């Protein structure tokens, strides 16, 4: 059965060329970040000047959990402003529906595949941690979650959706609408990396930048495969939750408390453990990202070939309808 809210006609003539739409969206995102960040920065500087220790440590980049909590605090405003701008641009500049970005109706089957997405995102992190533990490179100790962990969990869901909505739902969708998926993979993966390029410790190793762009490729292929936002959002959240909430590892350079705490046992090389940036700066993760991207790319090719066959169609059936 076809989903009534799925992606409809994508041949409508847009008001602006593809590259103009992409630049317009990115400029809008920069504007939103500046507008939201300036008042927050003013408040923190004022509190630091008045003697607040947490504000001082935050400005000294020593309060990583504070940085994450601050990001979570401003995330609702960022998401609301971004959705408003994208809605206007999608309807009156792209001349396509907002739902066509991947807002499909959640039914029992899709909810089940959200669970698959969570496992698919968490599994690579668990595999790398397991390999490092079995080879004696890291130690794993029981830690524990706090009330802040619940707040961080909700924030990670919100941030995962925000990034998937923007980078895959809007930017990559525009490239797919124009039949330019390769260019879309390149542009959106670079943009995804740039968003994280100001995170703590991101420049300590080239593996961090490589893996951030690799994550952008994997998530874009997951989006293209499922033709909806929920599956890549689940993968994105599963990846971050496994790093931070499960193993207490830095999430793109920002460390939080997890159920377990993974520590470098024998001073293993940073190309293996990822160092202060976390596993996203590990060459082991690079290997897994390449393997996952190849697998997802193969599935995308299979689905596209079926749809382009004489008996195929361009329906919005999710990937699991193609695989079962």
- Strand ordering within the main sheet: 1-2
What class would the helix/strand composition place it in?
mainly alpha
Unreliable sequence segments: 1-11
The outline comes out as: globular
Count of β-strands: 2
N- to C-terminal separation?
Answer: 14 Å
Output the number of helix runs.
11
Helix content, binned percent: 55-70%
Output the helix-strand order: HHHHEHHHHEHHH
TL;DR?
The protein is mainly alpha-helical and about 325 residues long. The chain is built from eleven helices and two strands.
What does this structure look like?
This protein has a domain at about 105-324. The two termini are about 15 Å apart. The radius of gyration is 20 Å and the shape is globular. With about 325 residues, it is mainly alpha-helical. It has a two-stranded antiparallel ribbon with strand order 1-2. The protein has helices at about 20-50, 55-60, 65-90, 110-135, 145-175, 180-195, 205-225, 230-245, 270-275, 285-310, 320-324, and strands at about 140, 260-265.
Write the layout of secondary structure elements.
Layout: H1 18-49, H2 53-59, H3 64-92, H4 108-134, E1 138-142, H5 147-177, H6 181-195, H7 206-226, H8 230-246, E2 260-264, H9 270-273, H10 283-308, H11 319-323
Antiparallel strand pairs: 1-2
